């Protein structure tokens, strides 16, 4: 099946997941967070400090990204460390950033 044939046969769940993925990538704060996570694992505090954002804002965005399985976390004591969880989306993000840089 070619790409165009696949595109004609998208089921509702696939359409929803794709639209939610693009929704996630449409927000500048989420893009900044994902771009930082491309460099490795970071705690919520590190993300907030590095990006000059409030901890609550970062936590809210990370919850959104986690629900889409774009990021994952591990707990060390009371600290949560986040990292990327979808290499395909991170590659898409990197390509979009490279594309924007060439304009």
From TrEMBL:
Domain HTH arsR-type intervals: 10-103
Family annotation (CDD domains): HTH_ARSR
Protein's name in the database: ArsR family transcriptional regulator
Pfam families (UniProt xref): HTH_5
Gene3D superfamilies the record matches: Winged helix-like DNA-binding domain superfamily/Winged helix DNA-binding domain
Source organism (scientific name): Ureibacillus sinduriensis BLB-1 = JCM 15800
Organism taxonomic ancestry: Bacteria, Bacillati, Bacillota, Bacilli, Bacillales
Keywords, sorted A to Z: DNA-binding, Transcription, Transcription regulation
UniProt GO molecular function: DNA binding; DNA-binding transcription factor activity
